[in-house]
Every structure is written in C-alpha cells, then in structure tokens.
Amino acid sequence: MKKVFLFIIAASLTVGAFAQKFDGLALTPPMGWNSWNTFAVHIDEKLVMATADQLVSSGMKDAGYIYLVLDDAWMAKERDANGNLVPDPIKFPHGMKAVADYVHSKGLKFGLYNCAGTKTCAGYPGTRGYEYQDARFYASIGIDYLKFDWCNTEGINAKEAYTTMSKAIKTAGRPVIFSLCEWGSNKPWEWAAPVGHLWRTTTDITARFDNVTHNKGWNPFSTMHIVDEQKDLRKYAGPGHWNDPDMLEVGNGMTQGEDRAHFSMWCMLAAPLIAGNDLRKMTPQTQAILTNKGAVSVDQDSLGIEGYKYAEKDSLETWVKPLKKGVAICFLNRSSKAQPIDFNWKDHPLTDDLSKMSIDFTTSTYKVFDIWNNKEAGNTKKAFTQTVQPHDVVMLKLYQ
After folding, report:
1. 169/197 Cα distance (integer angstroms)
2. pLDDT averaged over the chain?
3. Nearest-CA neighbor of 112 among 58, 48, 46, 202?
4. How far is CA 140 from CA 96, 221, 267, in A?
5. How far is 186 from 168, CA to CA, in rounded Å?
6. CA-CA-CA-CA torsion for 290, 204, 183, 291, nearest 10 degrees?
7. Pairwise CA distance, residues 169 & 165, whole Å
C-alpha cells in the first residue's frame, strides 16, 4: 500500500513538473492595448483608468480589445524585504489590486509586464530567480495577461527561462495569457507552443512604414520590415499559439493609408492586435481603422491560419489568407505612387498546403466584399479592378 501511495505521489509531481501553459486561452489572436508605444515609463493609475474608460466608450471593447496591459515601470525600483515586487507608490498609490479591480469592473482583462532577466529593460526588478514568487503575486492581484521581456539576460537560456515562468504561472493557479517578448532571438516559434500563447518574432516596432530609424543604439523595425521578417513562420502559428510581430502603431504618426496598410497586414498575418496609441486623443480615422469589423474578422477567423504572399509585381504585393468560410485577399502597395489592380480571378487559382485550401475560379464563384470601402464589389466572374494609393491597401473578403 505504501509503495502504491508513493508511486501516485511521484507520478503527480512528475505531471506537475512538466505542466506548462494554460490551455484554452488565445484561441484567436489576443486583442487589447499596451502602454509602451506611447507612454513608455510614464504610466500611472489615472492613465489606466482613463484608458479602461476609453476602451469601453470608443467601441474598442465591443470590437474585441479586451486586454489592458501595463508595460515596463509599473513597479518600484527595489523589491521589499521579503523579495516581493512592489507597485510604485507614487504612480499607483492605491496598489495594483485596486487598478486590476477597476479594469475588471469595466468588463476588461488586466495585464502586466516583467522580464526574464535580472532587471527589466527600463532598469526595474526583473524576475530571474523570483519566478514562482512573482507568479503568486500576479495571481493574487488577478492579472489575466503577462508580457515577459528579454533584457539583462546574459548567460540565461531562453527556452529554460520562459519554460520556468510558464510553469510558475500554471502552479500559481490563475489562467493567464503568457506573451513571450523574446524578440525572435532564439527562434521561439520552434519551441514555445507548449510554453506560451504568443511569441515575438522580431525586435521592436516603430511608427514608420518602410524605413528603419536608428535611435541611440536601438534599431527598431518599420512595419513593412517586420512583415518581411515573417516569411516562413506561418506554419508555427495557430489557435493558442501565435507569431507576434509586435504591437500596433496605428494612430502614432503614420499617414492614414499607412495605418490602414499596417493594420491590414497584421490582420492578414493573424497577429495579436495590441493597440499602442493614446486612446484619450484618438481621432475618428484611427478609431475607424482599429474597429473595422471586416478587417478584425479576418484577423480573428477561427481557422487560425496566417496569410501568405501570393504574388509581387512593381512593389504591389498580393496576399492571401484562408478563412473558415472563404478567403481574404489584400493588395499592398509599398511604392510611392498609385498602382492599378487588374486581377482576373480565373487566371489565379488559390491553393495552400497548410490549410488545404484549393479554389479554382473557373469552376467556383465567390462574392467579393471590399473591406475598407465597406461595400459589395461584385463576384469572381469578373476581373477585379481598382487603384490602390501609395503606402495603402485594398482588402477583400471572398465568400459564397
């Protein structure tokens, strides 16, 4: 009897030791808002509450943006005497539990940031050596999302570090989406599916369409550079485990067409849609882009298949994304001049080994919906013709 009992205990410990992320979360790419792109370290509880209010009043919550995530610098510069993380008492005088409760009261979910290293990117206490202690703290205040960065990690193995934190979250017992912000340095797409729900594929984004800005040794990528970096990664993504090309820069200084192209491509890539603009100052144009039902539905399609580049000519790219019912087509104009589209469907059968999609337009007819113009655009019996403006897109949804 004792041997059987000991065997059961040992088996339980073994199962627990290898348990990792919570299943059943992020079955479509997560949608929400993160503080970093606009506010960096300048955050406080008033901003959180105002942003939560705006997520609701602007219609973004209804569009699917439910995660409000505080990025770096929410904590004090040092842990307390017991090694616990402490919310900055000036920025968050009522504590983080009160902030989380307010966000939850709005029907939203709350997220925080930390780092796999000894310190965060902004120099605040990192999690290395405190994984289980920090996970218990997160569970105690009721977070729903953890973004976990990769600064100050010299000598640390990425797979080991992220796996440890994933197990710590699971042990703490509160279901949390785990976002690996590892920048793609160690090819997380090859090992992170059991560990987290999304993983960064590149370095940080910046609000530029198709050029790179260098800033004091920090070399962010433009939106189109990031799109190019997604090549050959689509096979690794799917429900519960997503490639993450970084947060959105919609509303942060690009032109309306560039914002539309940026957003469209993230939707075609089945990317997490994490807004990074100041919602308190959001223009109607930015709001319309972020909440466009047709585009969001392409991103959130339950099939969970990333799109792929079908063709390219004279800086005009044609992208295809298989959907649960139908297919999305995006014509992306990366040039500085307007480009004509003349797409004869019968000359372009669509096949995709990953989704098993196979469409022959000589034998099948689909209706065409123009997503950004919000109108029907005929069917595939007739060639699709339109002009796409510089640094802009035409995005279609084909359905039967």
Report:
1. 13
2. 94
3. 48
4. 10, 36, 34
5. 21
6. 0
7. 6
Cβ atoms 380, 368 nearer than 8 A: yes
Domain boundaries, the chain: 22-299, 308-399
**Pairing of the two strands 31-34 and 273-275:** parallel
Q: Is 348 exposed, middle or buried (0-12, 13-18, 19+ CB in 10 A)?
A: middle
For 224, how many CA atoms within 13 A lie in the half-sphere containing its CB? 21
Instruction: For the full predicted model, state whether its pTM sits above 0.90.
Output: yes
The CB density around residue 266, as the number of other CB atoms within 10 Å, is: 26
Average pLDDT (133-145) is 98
Choosing from 72, 134, 149, 246, the catalytic residue is 149
Superfamily of the domain at 22-299:
Aldolase class I (3.20.20.70)
Q: For 193-225, what is each residue's pLDDT tens digit?
A: 999 999 999 999 999 999 766 666 678 999 999
Distance from C-alpha of 193 to C-alpha of 188, rounded to nearest angstrom = 8
Q: Active-site residue 149, yes or no?
A: yes
What class is the 308-399 domain?
A: mainly beta
Cβ atoms within 10 Å, residue 203: 18
Options 53, 101, 204, 370, the catalytic residue: 204
Q: Which of 207, 301, 316 is nearest to 253 (CA)?
A: 207
Q: Which helix (H) or strand (E) holds 164?
A: helix 158-172
